[in-house]
Amino acid sequence: MKTLRLEHAVLHYRIDGPADGRPVLFANSLGTDLRVWSALLPLLPAGLRLIRYDKPGHGLSDAAPGPYTIAGLSAEAAALLDHLGLRDVTVIGLSIGGMIAQDMAARRPDLLRAMVLMDTAAQIGTAQMWQDRIDAVRAGGIASLAEAVLARWFAPAFHRDRADELALWRNMLCRTTPEGYSGCCAAIAKADLNTTTRALTLPAMAMAGSEDGATPPDLVRATAEMMGAPFHLIEGAGHLPCVEAPEQVAALLTRFLEQTA
Questions:
Q1: How many CB atoms neighbour CB 218 within 10 A?
Q2: What's the pTM value of the predicted model, to 2 decimals?
Q3: Which of 194, 200, 196, 207 is nearest to 256 (CA)?
Q4: Residue 143 to residues 149, 150, 175, 177, 253: CA-CA distances in angstroms?
């Protein structure tokens, strides 16, 4: 296992692919760890250097004291790229991972070549909505939110046809530390990236699941439009299209990687 010691936590990361491959960084969603990309990676072109990591309090990473900020989370992602000596990176961000990608593109343009935004936006929800979620975690733990979260993560067909797998995703969510989950909720609550995202000029693409109950497609499309980036709708998928429709996502990513080579 690979680790990076940060100021307040130890970050867990993983690298697959050749050392001289084109670097691609994956930033995960709230309540998931780096395994959220597992079905997608084997479908991507050979020869890429694929970097995944766990945000604080997620997966195997330490839970740094909260609350967090998107700027702080993007600085940690940038620190990982600096640690690895990487530049010209394509970052693929899912949900809060997409907010991290947008912020890193604005603050550290020297690191990035291109960006893919998946089921995310420049601003998500309201501060009160996220505070309500933090309060619910404090009162009843993440398990008290699990059914509502899973309903947003996956389309009805997934719940009906893949019940055993759904149980594993519930376990992943519930085993996220309360500190890490609440800290990321606080980061999203305070984040308004509209001004900086609108000013971005790097090549970008956005996509969203048609059944996404967390970041509805119109919200994701609006963020793409402010950047002049193409938007793709993944029919029949929820908030995690890399899980529900990995073949379709891989085809879009492969084409984008070819266009930004």
A1: 10
A2: 0.98
A3: 207
A4: 10, 11, 9, 11, 33
Residue 219 half-sphere exposure toward CB, CA atoms < 13 A: 18
Residue at 173: amino acid letter: L
Sign of the dihedral defined by the CA atoms of residues 22, 84, 15, 215, in that order = negative
Residue 248 to residue 174: CA distance in whole angstroms: 28
Residue 160 tokens, joined: 């009906």
- What the block records as the tokens of 150 is 């899973």
Domains and CATH numbers, the chain: 2-259 (3.40.50.1820)
Closest by CA position to 234, among listed 203, 206, 214: 206
**Could you read off the pLDDT tens digit of each residue along the chain, which spans 261 residues?**
999 999 888 999 999 999 999 999 999 999 999 999 999 999 999 999 999 999 999 999 999 888 999 999 999 999 999 999 999 999 999 999 999 999 999 999 999 999 999 999 999 999 999 999 999 999 999 999 999 999 999 999 999 999 999 999 999 999 999 999 999 999 999 999 999 999 999 999 999 999 999 999 999 999 999 999 999 999 999 999 999 999 999 999 999 999 999
Evaluate whether 98 touches 27 at the Cβ level (below 8 Å): yes
Task: Write the CA distances from 249 to 37, 44, 66, 181, integer angstroms.
Answer: 11, 9, 33, 26
d(CA 151, CA 215): 13
Identify the DSSP state of 113: E
